[in-house]
Amino acid sequence: MQSPGVIDAGALVVQLALFPVKSVAGLCAEAAEIGPEGLAGDRGFVLALADGEPLRARTAPRLRELELSGPVHAPVVSAPGGAPGDLAAVARFLGVDGPVRLRRAPGGARQVAAVHVVTTTDRDAPGAGDSSRANLVLRPTGGALPPAAELAGALLEVGPVLLRLGEPPRHCAGSFAEVLRGGTVRTGDPARLRASADGVAGAPG
Length: 205
Description:
There is one protein chain. By secondary structure, the chain is mainly beta. The chain is 6% helix and 35% strand. It contains two helices and 15 strands. Strand 1 and strand 2 (27-28) form a beta hairpin. The radius of gyration is 18 Å and the shape is elongated. 37% of the residues are buried.
């Protein structure tokens, strides 16, 4: 296993994705602002039952098939082929009892980490888990990057943004990351993966 202390590798942001409504299809973006809680507009809403209970993919698996439109700060959810924003049709499509409503999720609906990062190396590896809901997809520019299992604690710089990679998720490819320094990230931005011991400016000591 490679030690994080010797990592110094380049990459390119080839996809940037936001998921305004938890468990519903996402939107690819040319640019996104990243703050302490992750990408602005990411998982800021949930579909909920009348009593406020959020719908989740494990209990309503057809959430992933819903269509999403509108801006990230005011998303519109529709059943496939249905009228935009027709939540009665959404409830019928999902097969749930009673009406559903779209509500804000204070602090965001993410449950694990602020940002989900995956490299094309991990995404394309045999037996890789699902990475379809990753926020940042990175393509190596100087040879394959180490697998996610060897990157815990490493720092990822993308423009002004600085992330610290954590342990890989159990059920999907890539790494969850915390935000050490925010800013704007754009598709096509170069990225640099470094050891946490490198002392990158702005990282907590």
